[in-house]
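During the reporting period, we have paired protein sequences with backbone structure tokens. One record among many follows, to show the layout:
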Amino acid sequence: MTRMINFGLTLGILSCLLLSINIAEAKRGIPPGLSPVIYKGIKFIASHWPKHEKINGKKIDIWYVEGWNVEKNSKVWEKEVYRISIDNFLEYDVQMVFITSLSIEKDKLVIVNERGKKYQVDIPKNILKE
């Protein structure tokens, strides 16, 4: 009888520990501090959430940037920066790769993601104000 009580108590404690581990795993939020960049009358912003596409049943996250006319507050440009193929057998939020910084270098928009990968995008001349 004592063995059954000890076994039940041990099983209960292990169950509580396993549940607490799952509860402690927090979902990721948007990384803080990503500021837009304003250049020649255009405000460049990075998407906080990707667009989604399915190719042959596989989910793809598309991370992009937008250009907004500051005077008119209207979107004048959008550009895909990178794609992430999503594995259905892994948690979705741990596969997300957020854009962490935007800057301008020699008329190019420079985008860096949280993995440290750097992308340079040509800014169309026709949207810029001189």
